[in-house]
């Protein structure tokens, strides 16, 4: 069982990511969308998948990627998340500029747009804080609190954003992915806090 | 009413009420009663293209956009009013010129335009309608379908003299 466990963990993670992605790939809506709009949708799904990987990496839950290796990869995946969000918004802009302008100005008729825009700004703020962390000589405690608060905002608003949308994602796999993101983030934040506490 | 919230429930309720009264209007003798003019909905004018041509049908058809146009002054149906319609359908994006068309209301203030099936876009299956002919205040509507499998969608205009 001990030898099987790493393989099972990785298989579960790959399934949790591959299933929603491949089911979205069979969505009938795709046939009525042009390439930028299709890319926009998948960039959003990839971003959600990366949100699942992030807490697993930083808390060292992934076999073979524990400790500094996991944290190192966590930074790279963070950069990937930023890129996915930028691609998501840029390709939506190409598809329908006025809808994206409405969303960015919080004037959209659809409630999920506001949640998505809040998540986007929280991702930008996280990236900025991470980039300036050394230069600002941020005390580790402040960095941890700030980063944890932003991460919490990102996962909550992203899940709301995704769940309220009628799009290419299949509903069951979308709901499962969102729940996994929320559970993984909550567990990682709680475990990391415990590890810091003196026994 | 200084603040009328544009919630989905509100819009649906207003639409349903307007729909119900629209059914009654042709049968009942026209009563001179002022009505609240329809306000433009959030995002209603997105991807609007001025001067959409009058058409018998947008593309291959199969989906019906219907509704009524009435005068806010007395509630009377308005005939011959030009309503422009566009949406993301099985035949094109909202921005595509061929996704746009216009129709006129009949003697009872009713309009019906056949168009391709509307499919969810930007997270909701929705259509766009515009009254933009100048005699009355411009109104842009953005009704949302209850289910994306619906093959009809309605929207109602109560227009105010400009």
Question: Concise description?
Answer:
The complex is a heterodimer of chains A (199) and B (162). Chain A is an all-alpha fold and 199 residues long.
What's the number of extended β-strand segments of chain A?
0
Order of helices and strands of chain A: HHHHHHH
Oligomer: heterodimer
Radius of gyration of chain B: 15 Å
Poorly predicted segments of chain A:
none
Mean pLDDT score of chain A: 96
Largest sheet of chain B: 4 strands, antiparallel
Shape of chain B: globular
What structural class do helix, strand and pairing data of chain B support? alpha+beta
Largest interface: A-B, 21 and 23 residues
- What is the N-to-C order of secondary-structure elements of chain B (H for helix, E for strand)? HEEEEEEE
Strand order of the largest sheet of chain B: 3-2-5-6
Helix content of chain A: over 70%
- Which class best fits the helix and strand makeup of chain A? mainly alpha
Helix content of chain B: 10-25%
Tally of separate helices of chain A: 7
Separation of termini of chain A? 30 Å
Kindly, what is the distance between the CA atoms of the first and last residues of chain B, rounded to a whole number of angstroms?
20 Å
Number-wise, the strands of chain B total 7
